[in-house]
């Protein structure tokens, strides 16, 4: 299996067994050690599910499991990827019992465990089961003294959290988590603020106007970190040339001319790099603040093309002046983007408007290795 799968291997399972045996010994914990030979063919997600099942059998009642896990926190080695099956088993037991008190306690337990390894994946099933109840309790985490807990409030409730299951209610009500984000937008931790920006960027994928409105409110009463957070929150909308997002960041429609768009690498064999340059002129009457991006139109498997936008520069250009800009773009097979041979195109995007068109050919190197597939973490 891949390197990610080995994050939860025999050593981690043995350490988990040791921590829990010290905190709350039960005969069923031997199931963890018995499961070790079954790990090898499984993905990280599969290993997590296997071990979580063993924990549910060892501690079949939620209160028993919660006490064991809290007791194990006394062990500083009770940390890392062994925590994922721990958090998943706690949620499974809390939901199976149907007791609201267990539901609430499970959220408290995830907050206690998250400094050892984020609980952001396990929390998704609680959000799905009762979104309103969960969010009401999570709101209090925004004032927690531990930045890991505050980050969990934002990260665990992201609409499109990578590797995690979707929570339908978060997609149906894009404003549901805004009070959490508002409480954390000026957080002293950069990690928390980055999570807030990523969360709001997630919302922009299906509710762009709500994202722009939230950013506008925050800019009306800014902290020193607000402008940077807003830029990061709006990055997808800027690439999509959303007028409201561009205007909020000071990128008004501009009169510009893009000339001499050219490349020194018209034919590229993967892995390779496209190198390009052009001249940008402000033909308007006032200085223009410009967000300069470039768009690569990738050839797809069936011969069509699909655009992807990349950042190039942000600059202020006085009226009548020109600037020569250059860029380079790496092309190689990735787990997130498969390249195909054929004629690709490049365009320049300035404040959301596309200019020019440059063709370049991509050829595949038959000896270039295919990218390894990432471990599946969807449940």
UniProtKB/TrEMBL annotation:
This is 3-methyladenine DNA glycosylase AlkC. InterPro entries: ARM-type_fold, DNA_alkylation, HEAT_type_2. It holds the Pfam family DNA_alkylation. The lineage of its organism: Bacteria, Bacillati, Actinomycetota, Actinomycetes, Micrococcales. It comes from Arthrobacter gandavensis.
């Amino acid at each position: 299996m891949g390197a990610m799968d080995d994050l939860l291997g025999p050593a981690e399972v043995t350490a988990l067994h040791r921590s829990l045996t010290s905190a709350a010994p039960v005969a069923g914990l031997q199931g963890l050690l018995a499961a070790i030979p079954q790990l090898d063919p499984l993905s990280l997600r599969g290993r997590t599910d296997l071990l979580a099942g063993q924990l549910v059998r060892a501690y079949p009642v939620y209160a028993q499991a919660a006490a064991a896990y809290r007791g194990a926190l006394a062990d500083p080695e009770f940390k890392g990827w062994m925590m994922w099956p721990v958090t998943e088993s706690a949620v499974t037991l809390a939901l199976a019992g149907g007791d609201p008190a267990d539901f609430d306690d499970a959220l408290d337990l995830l907050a206690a465990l998250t400094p050892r390894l984020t609980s952001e994946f396990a929390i998704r099933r609680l959000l799905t089961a009762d979104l309103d109840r969960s969010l009401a309790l999570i709101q209090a985490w925004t004032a927690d003294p531990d930045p890991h807990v505050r980050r969990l409030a934002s990260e665990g409730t992201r609409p499109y959290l990578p590797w995690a299951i979707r929570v339908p209610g978060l997609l149906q009500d894009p404003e549901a988590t805004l009070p959490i984000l508002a409480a954390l937008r000026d957080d002293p931790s950069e990690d928390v603020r980055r999570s807030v920006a990523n969360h709001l960027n997630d919302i922009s994928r299906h509710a762009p106007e709500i994202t722009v409105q939230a950013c506008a409110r925050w800019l009306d009463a800014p902290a020193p970190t607000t402008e940077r957070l807003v830029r990061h929150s709006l990055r997808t909308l800027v690439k999509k040339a959303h007028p409201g997002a561009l205007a909020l960041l000071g990128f008004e429609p501009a009169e510009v001319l893009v000339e001499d768009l050219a490349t020194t690498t018209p034919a590229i064999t993967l892995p390779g790099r496209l190198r390009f340059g052009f001249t940008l002129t402000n033909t308007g009457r006032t200085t223009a603040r410009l967000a300069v991006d470039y768009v690569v139109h990738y050839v797809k498997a069936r011969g069509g093309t699909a655009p992807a936008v990349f950042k190039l520069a942000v600059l202020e250009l006085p009226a009548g002046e020109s600037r020569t800009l250059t860029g380079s773009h790496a092309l190689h097979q990735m787990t997130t983007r498969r390249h195909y041979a054929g004629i690709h195109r490049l365009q320049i995007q300035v404040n959301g408007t596309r200019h020019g068109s440059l063709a370049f050919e991509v050829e595949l190197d038959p000896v270039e290795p295919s990218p390894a597939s990432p471990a599946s973490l969807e449940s």
